[in-house]
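Incident log, support desk, overnight shift.

02:14 A customer reports that sequence design results differ from what the structure should imply. Their input is reproduced verbatim below. On-call engineer (initials T.W.) acknowledged and began investigating.
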């Protein structure tokens, strides 16, 4: 795994403005006494990601101020309002030239997905043609791992809030699904009611 730790970059998408949460940036929601973005970085680190790029958007200055993101590469997405697709493109762009052969993409608003699920997805990496996704009772979810051979194609099709969905649908047969329902819960923090999941 050691070699792979250097080949795979963690890519945390944390730019969302929390439209349905009254415009509170998701990265700054509190979980266990710290900003959610800090928790999400901790999950990636614990799972074995040494190199982590965090895409910021809504409230980026406040996130820099309040969250301890030491050791992470912070990437600003000025177009974060266009949706997750633009953050995914910005994040993949930031990995160009770093030597990373794959990106493990996770979302800041899924605190129910911990290191165990992330480590499973990381463990399924083979080479830069790898396409791996966590699955929950057989249904594809996050995190997902994109080998570098797929980055250009994903960037071309990532629009709006769909992220890599269109690309993954077109390459369904190439995806390795890694079942994670026994170790993680893939809920999103999208609405006021979802805030109950935060601790």
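02:41 Re-run completed on a clean worker. Output:
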């Amino acid at each position: 795994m050691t070699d792979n730790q250097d080949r795979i970059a963690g890519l945390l998408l944390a730019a969302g403005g929390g439209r349905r949460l009254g415009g509170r940036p998701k990265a700054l929601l509190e979980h266990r006494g710290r900003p959610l973005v800090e928790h999400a970085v901790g999950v990636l680190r614990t799972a074995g990601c040494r190199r982590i790029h965090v895409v910021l958007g809504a409230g980026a200055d406040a996130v820099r101020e309040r969250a301890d993101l030491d050791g992470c590469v912070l990437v600003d997405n000025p177009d974060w309002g266009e949706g997750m697709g633009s953050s995914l493109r910005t994040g993949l762009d930031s990995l160009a030239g770093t030597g990373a052969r794959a990106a493990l993409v996770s979302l800041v608003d899924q605190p129910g997905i911990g290191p165990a699920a992330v480590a499973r997805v990381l463990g399924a990496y083979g080479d830069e043609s790898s396409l791996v996704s966590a699955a929950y009772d057989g249904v594809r979810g996050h995190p997902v791992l994109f080998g570098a051979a797929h980055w250009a194609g994903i960037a071309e099709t990532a629009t709006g809030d769909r992220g890599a969905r269109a690309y993954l649908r077109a390459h369904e047969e190439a995806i390795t699904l890694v079942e994670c329902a026994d170790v993680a819960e893939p809920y999103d923090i999208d609405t006021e009611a979802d805030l109950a999941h935060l601790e």
